[in-house]
Amino acid sequence: MYKLVLESRYDGTDFVGFQIQDNGRSVQGVLEEALREIYKTDIDLTGCSRTDSGVHAACHVSSADVPFFIPSEKVPLALNAVLPPDVAVKSAWYAKEDFNARFMSLGKRYIYRIYSSPVRDPLIARYSFHTPYAPDISLMKEAASYMTGTLDYASFCAAGGSQNTTVRTVTEVNVTEDGKIPGLILIEVKGESFLYNMVRIMAGTLFYAGIGKISPEEVKMLFEMPDRKKAGKTLPACGLTLEEVYYDKERWMVQL
Amino acid sequence: MYKLVLESRYDGTDFVGFQIQDNGRSVQGVLEEALREIYKTDIDLTGCSRTDSGVHAACHVSSADVPFFIPSEKVPLALNAVLPPDVAVKSAWYAKEDFNARFMSLGKRYIYRIYSSPVRDPLIARYSFHTPYAPDISLMKEAASYMTGTLDYASFCAAGGSQNTTVRTVTEVNVTEDGKIPGLILIEVKGESFLYNMVRIMAGTLFYAGIGKISPEEVKMLFEMPDRKKAGKTLPACGLTLEEVYYDKERWMVQL
């Protein structure tokens, strides 16, 4: 057996999320089907995270035990030939046998895209949340400055999570303008791990700060006296993209 | 009657093109339906160009006679509320009564997007042509330098056009790299008017120049001794976006 690691990209629009579920088409299901075609046997993938229905990935990592060796540079080509247009494997590598894409992840980077314009734009609608409001970027930046650290993110957690603690470490929250597309605002969030819907609620809170519905000081208070009801709403899944997943590759990668 | 001008954006993926046709959903059909809902009467739109099935528009212009006045800044909001997600009206203005979006156009700007990467990317696949080849940008630029002027573009015209002459004026052909997305190559083409499939065949020819299938000098020859068979293939519609349409607004626009 070989421990294969896949870095994949997908357009989440027509998926129920990464993880296999009864109620529809999942990225995991589609990837496992492609692996079955190549390896001629059932393969169980472990994903770095579930991702919600509609959330996109520029890089999602999953791992599996495969029965025989294929050179890592050939794996994407073999899989992409059988995968549907909305999923592709970007690259592959081999890991030590006790590697697990979920538990060995050191952190993740997400981008939430807000498109602020009086009119919507069909050419970016799949990958952004459209709002006719014009958020004040400096207020968003100020609110974002309170969101990093090892803090209690209970205010930014949807009901339904099964975690023991709501304390998480977020290392970066950057609010920037795209530059190329006027009105497109990028919220970049980097952290070790995240609660259920956490990035979308953080984005919603920064959006509320930008339009004056909540002050930067009130955002600070959300960490001192956690209250989900006082944070912003959960912004739509389509605006969120998982951009990167971090691993200690020196420790885990093997050259075969 | 008022002469209304609409600047619209659309994701061409699920359309047979701009113009109404028997064989499927058209942008014109969808826009006319929205106009009917607002103005409560049948409205005939005239588009600046047909655009092929699958081609996108960041700005497509069309005009129509409408029976009553709505402030131009309210028109996009009224129409966007009833339009489907893949079409939106960006802005609207009023013109003198003999304005016609097709005949008064002074020129258009298109961008053709080529994504050069060993693996495809589902997040940009709708708006680009994927190739595993890595074209040489300097060869593409050199070939592009022969493509501007008032020239015979017969080598870049698909069968089925009904024009009297294949002479056209192209003012700019620029080949650049996107910068943000590695491997994304942009071919920008600006001209007065275009033959059937002309931009897609020009893009195909520049692509062939980039991968060494045709030399820049041979591209120059295509204008001296026109031969469709010696030009590059017609690249897929999904890579093409109509970016801008030019009018003499000082001459045609009216303030109501």
Written account of the structure:
Two copies of one chain form a homodimer. Chain A has 256 residues and is α+β, with helices and mostly antiparallel strands. Chain A has two domains: 2-104, Alpha-Beta Plaits (2-Layer Sandwich); 107-243, 2-Layer Sandwich (Alpha-Beta Plaits). In chain A, 21% of the residues lie in helices and 30% in strands. Chain A has six helices and eleven strands. The first copy, chain A, has helices spanning 27-39, 75-80, 137-144, 198-210, 216-224, 249-252, and strands at 2-10, 46-47, 56-66, 87-95, 107-116, 129-131, 149-152, 167-177, 184-191, 240-246, 253-254. In chain A, strands 1, 2, 3, 4, 5, 6, 7, 8, 9, 10 and 11 form an eleven-stranded mixed sheet that branches. In chain A, a hairpin with an 8-residue loop joins strand 2 and strand 3 (56-66). The longest helix of chain A is centred in the N-terminal third of the chain and has 13 residues, at 27-39. Chain A is globular. The model of chain A has no long low-confidence stretch (mean pLDDT 96). The interface between A and B is medium-sized, with 26 and 26 residues.
Amount of helix of chain A: 10-25%
CATH topology heading of the largest domain in chain A:
Alpha-Beta Plaits
CATH secondary-structure class of the largest domain in chain A: Alpha Beta
Q: Which regions of chain A are unreliable across 5 or more consecutive residues at pLDDT < 50?
A: none
| Helical stretch tally of chain A | 6
> How big a fraction of the residues of chain A is strand?
25-35%
CATH architecture of the largest domain in chain A: 2-Layer Sandwich
